[in-house]
Amino acid sequence: MQNGRYGTILISGVVGFALLALSCASTSVTPEKQPAGPAADQPRQGGILTQYFGGDPPSFDLHQESTSAANLSASPAYNQLVIYDPLEPTKVKPDLATSWQVSPDGKTYTFQLAKDVKFHNGNALTAADAKFSLERVMSPPKGIRSPRQGAYSIVERVEAPDDATLRVVLKQPAPSLIMNLAVGYMAVYDKEFAETKGQNAFEKEVMGSGPFRFKEYIRGVSMEVERNKEYWVKDRPYLDGIKIFIIPDRNTALAAFRSGQLHIFSLTADDLKNLGPDLTSKVTVQETMSYGHRGVDINVRKKPFDDPRVRQAVSLAIDRNAALKVLYLGEGKIGGYMPPHGQWGVSPEELAKIPGYGPNKASEIEQAKQLLSEAGFPSGFQTTITTRKLTSYEDVMVFAVDQLAKVGIKAQTKILETTQAYDAMSQGDFELGTWVYGVQTDDPDGIFGEHIICGAVRNYSGFCDKEVDALFNKQSQTLNVEERKKLVQEIERKALTLGGRVILRGGIGRPTLWNEVKNFKAHPDGDNNSKFQDVWMSK
Q1: Is 315 in the same domain as 383?
Q2: How many C-beta neighbours within 10 Å does residue 112 have?
Q3: What is the SS3 string spanning 294-348?
Q4: Residues 245-270 pLDDT 10s
Q5: CATH code: domain of residue 487
Q6: Is residue 497 helix, strand or coil?
Q7: Is pLDDT of 17 > 50?
Q8: Does residue 436 sit in the same domain as residue 528?
Q9: Could you tell me if 521 and 408 lie in one domain?
Q10: Can you give the residue range of the structural domain that contains 389?
Q11: What is the pLDDT of residues 486-517, one digit of tens each?
């Protein structure tokens, strides 16, 4: 996390763009609440912060990945131009960029970079590295995928006129640029390292300029980083290191948290009820509404899902209210791609008009059967659902199988290890697929550019609609918030109706930490707060 050497920039101040305050509350189960900002007592150096994830990362290349397994492991070793403020999620603050200016026409952003920054291999970090990194995301080299590529389609070119200056020139004004640059996957990479070792080197090696350095990775066991003693920010980080254990079984991980072996864990409502008096005085619970969602991807390239009637039948068959109860214990909100608690989400009244979101599920089930009959499947058909071997993913799969059976769609299950599952989904080697989608920002460019537009890396379904793409480009350059909101919601209605993905919204997250962990604030998406630069431990 960033110290106070620079001021913070409220997101709403960027090119006249206003962002609704995020829903992020903090509650404590201790007699004395932990402060939201820097701890009142003096920070101290030392300690190894421990966390867990349910599986190994597909790779450590943050530009390519979109899973928290990669972000938790590699993000502490990198810096970005800008970051979401670790203690105030509604704000963007400088990281490598000490300041930036926007031209009067809103089309040129000029960033001034911190000096004397070095990568962990001793190479100096300059604007050339920042240029290389942004261009790698915008136009990935052959063999490199870029989930966030669509968010930067608005960029015309990137320039590095000198070592300390980066210039981003846009095709037209873009109100979302700064927010998307702050997303926790926008690491600045060492250009020389890539040229020497190859673009794929970042998949297996972690080489950044961040507060922590790579120490050890034991597949299936743990990933560890250690304090960067030559870090360019004075007296940071406080921690000696961070260790992430690979624990596939959530109950095992919960037991490790209860015993103090893990410092941070996300509790469910049931977990919270069963904490017990022995633990409630020792931990702090922070609640935040998630940006992300769970869903069922429908592969439009495979029969019979190339028929929009079949896709709509799938959407009609799945009960979103039931999903909320089963998967989220009744907590959270029903919505589409855009977080329903943010400023872009479609209203409940408008959602109710979209197939699958209606108030009468029995009627929708009958509509689904009729559509299947019209498509030539009066008795339904057999298919396969693919997912990742993690409890949260498998839960969605089990729920979807049960729901689809109600309209005669009989789904066999296919559970794959993380790397194989990502390959299957990204290569379109599936019929239906259930997934958990991390979303880092409540921004249309970021979400639609990653999940909806033609060819987007995380548009696993292969959904492609020229009218939707045209609307995406139009909203991306619309500076008036209300006009942009109308376009965003039109995209939502079209995409949800055409049926590339059935959205089962996210719920409430409860990152819970032992009280000795200081200066940590839960974000709506934890991948925006994984550097731990200012976190410290009181014992």
Answers
A1: yes
A2: 16
A3: EEEEECCCCCCCCCHHHHHHHHHHCCHHHHHHHHHCCCCCCCCCCCCCCCCCCCH
A4: 999 999 999 999 999 999 999 998 88
A5: 3.10.105.10
A6: helix
A7: no
A8: no
A9: no
A10: 293-507
A11: 999 999 999 999 879 999 877 788 899 999 99
